[in-house]
Amino acid sequence: MTVAVAILAAGSGTRFAEKGSGPKPLAQLRGRPLVSWALGAAVGSGLRPIVLVVGHEGGRVARQASAAVIVTQASGWRRGIAHSLRAAIDLLEGWKQVDAVCVGLADQPKVGAEAYRRLSAAYDAGATLAAATYAGKRANPVLISRSLWPQARELQGDEGARQLMRTHPVVDVECGDTGDPVDVDTAEALAALEKEH
Q1: Domains held by the chain: number
Q2: Which among 105, 113, 15, 5 is positioned nearest to 61, based on CA atoms?
Q3: Furthest-apart CA pair in the chain: how many Å?
Q4: pLDDT tens-digit readout, 111-154
Q5: d(CA 141, CA 108)
Q6: Which CATH number goes with the domain that contains 27?
Q7: What domain range includes position 28?
């Protein structure tokens, strides 16, 4: 059984962009772009293939991907995260050996590689939909098995796998000791992370 990883980095990050910066995935945290932190965890997980979904200023964001990462452009990225998720699934559909995908976000630089490994283990144990939890609270990454991809493809708007969680059983996988799912939605949030040791 093979579990892939998809990092969604397609949005324009409107709340962040209002500060006059470039695309949010390229915002620097300790000398590295946010997307580089997210890809580092994905690559470090040992799971393959790894997909990076780009959209806004896709060429610039794609240049952060190493040779180990497959880049795909989400044509409908302006319509919300569900369309980025669809782009990842569309690409992976042809990879018949891939049974599930773990989905992470480019603006969560403290999510660790072990969270992806634990979700993969949950799939091996029979989960079809699983979420990393931190102190019991669901966050990212999220695992979606191939059996749910047709429904994931139908999702709309700026909410991804959370929509599936309303109608399907979810296996919660505690990952609080593996990292932190803090979102970098604003320049202030980035500045706060920069100050952490």
Answers
A1: 1
A2: 105
A3: 46
A4: 999 999 999 999 999 999 999 999 999 999 999 999 999 999 99
A5: 10
A6: 3.90.550.10
A7: 2-195
